[in-house]
Amino acid sequence: MMIDGSVWIHAPRRAGKTTRLIELAERFDLYIIVRDERRKAIIRNMARSMGKDIRNPIALHEFTCGRCVGDAYLMTHKGVLVDDSLDVLEALLGAQVVGAVANEPGWVVER
């Protein structure tokens, strides 16, 4: 099963965004990409406490160091979920992001 379109979850801190991401990861069998190992452990522990069976989250450095730790075919064909996307983008760029545009048609915004 695949997500129909893309999902953008927009809500204040501690409003359940990561919980929703974990639910989507389990339902659609998707990887969650995170900024670092600390966030990876948090996601893994949250999923376990929720009783959710998800693939092991992948830290950004695992991509940038050239080490593929997940199923590359699955990621390429089904896509990935990104937790705290602004943090991941800033870590990837090595710069503070002060503005961004997302214009993907078909995105569903959850508030």
Overview of the molecule:
The chain has one domain (16-95). The chain contains 5 helices and 5 strands. The longest helix has 14 residues, at 37-50. The strands form 2 sheets. Strands 3-2-4 form a 3-stranded parallel β-sheet. Strands 1-5 form a two-stranded parallel sheet. With 111 residues, it is α/β, with parallel strands linked by helices.
Task: Briefly say what this structure is.
The protein has 111 residues and is an alpha/beta fold.
Summary keywords:
111 residues; 15% strand; alpha/beta; globular; 5 strands
| Apparent shape | globular
What low-confidence regions span 5 or more consecutive residues with pLDDT below 50? none
Radius of gyration: 14 Å
How many angstroms separate the termini?
23 Å
Percent of residues in helices: 40-55%
The tally of structural domains comes to: 1
Task: Work out the strand percent.
Answer: 15-25%
Compute the number of strand runs. Answer: 5
Counted by DSSP, the helix tally is 5
Major sheet characteristics? 3 strands, parallel
Determine the structural class based on helices, strands and strand pairing: alpha/beta
Order of helices and strands: EHEHEHHEHE
Mean pLDDT, to the nearest integer, reads: 84
Q: For the largest sheet, list the strands in their spatial order.
A: 3-2-4
Secondary structure layout plus pairing:
Layout: E1 6-9, H1 17-28, E2 31-34, H2 37-50, E3 58-59, H3 60-64, H4 72-78, E4 80-82, H5 85-93, E5 107-110
Parallel strand pairs: 1-5, 2-3, 2-4
